[in-house]
């Protein structure tokens, strides 16, 4: 923990040092004035105070262990850090380019010509632009913390398949994922999202993992509203990487397995059928489809608990198969081109809770790690839908990538 805090402090101070240099050059004509002095006192004072509080809080609280409320308090403090330092990081990028630009001018042309021009700040247009973008970044983070994290949206998509049985033409599946209940601070926020889900009147509800951050007790404040969910053709769920309890330092190995059993029992008590490397047939009239569910399977550093072969045993003759697998990397590694599964439903990425998804443009840093990160991806007769999540983790905000309830309509 000490090394993490030291890295965070060092990284933040580096950003502040370069930003202060860039701002001092840009505001050089105001040097000596009361406004200039107050500006830099506020800039440095706020940053140093935040880092002292951040470091002190971690050393005082220590490892959160099984205390999910303490764990959540770290997220809230991290949110304040992001609110202050994300805009500074944005400014840092512009100041760094400005510094490199001036360095090139000095290296090849001697002392930069802009320094002797009448408009002395003429050469600092990049820093000015960065300052404007940093203000926008502050507004975006603030909006994401106050509004965006519970700005639930319904996304409707259609999947057509010749293999779909006739009785299931028009069948509507609601997908939610990554609730991370331990991150929420208000039961009403969760209730709002779940009511929006029920308003869609789906035929089936599926949950694709990460109900909690770490421990089963996070479910308890929300159990009553989760039990209100219902669908005529059932509700199915799987386990995500956070459900597995891998991020807690258990005093004894058997405690982790006890947690997992408790989580599964609680999830089942909510009305979901938890699929643990298994499947369930869904009948409608004379036709059937199958819902397959695997435990978390992820690329490193995430562990591989999922066993797809075991989950698919005995369903070779079912014409239409839907796989619930938390991590979309499982689709490219073991599903695509290797099975006859027509539709895979995943989550996990959260869209990194930061990006843009509007007006036909979709972007997020998540795509640098997960090529399949949000939405529907189709490969001939196999498709995957990646849900960006219902809740949030670490950063208590969603910026441009809103919490989503997906309604997938199956068509012949």
Estimated structural class = alpha/beta
Mean pLDDT: 91
Number of domains: 2
Under the CATH scheme, which architecture of the largest domain would be assigned? 4-Layer Sandwich
Summed up:
This protein is an alpha/beta fold and 412 residues long. Helix content is 39%, strand content 17%.
Task: Describe the structure using short key phrases.
single chain; 412 residues; alpha/beta; Purple Acid Phosphatase, chain A, domain 2; 2 domains; six-stranded mixed β-sheet; elongated
Your description of this structure?
This protein is α/β, with parallel strands linked by helices and 412 residues long. Helices cover 39% and strands 17% of the residues. The chain contains nine helices and 14 strands. Strand 2, helix 5 (187-199) and strand 3 form a beta-alpha-beta unit. The chain is elongated and about 85 Å long. The chain starts with a helix and ends with a strand.
Describe the protein's topology.
Blueprint: H1 2-26, H2 34-61, H3 68-109, H4 125-146, E1 153-160, E2 172-176, H5 187-199, E3 204-207, H6 223-226, E4 235-237, H7 253-269, E5 273-274, E6 278-284, E7 287-293, H8 308-311, E8 321-324, H9 329-335, E9 343-346, E10 356-358, E11 361-363, E12 375-379, E13 382-386, E14 404-411
Parallel strand pairs: 1-14, 2-3, 3-4, 4-5, 7-8, 8-9, 9-13
Antiparallel strand pairs: 2-14, 6-7, 10-11, 12-13
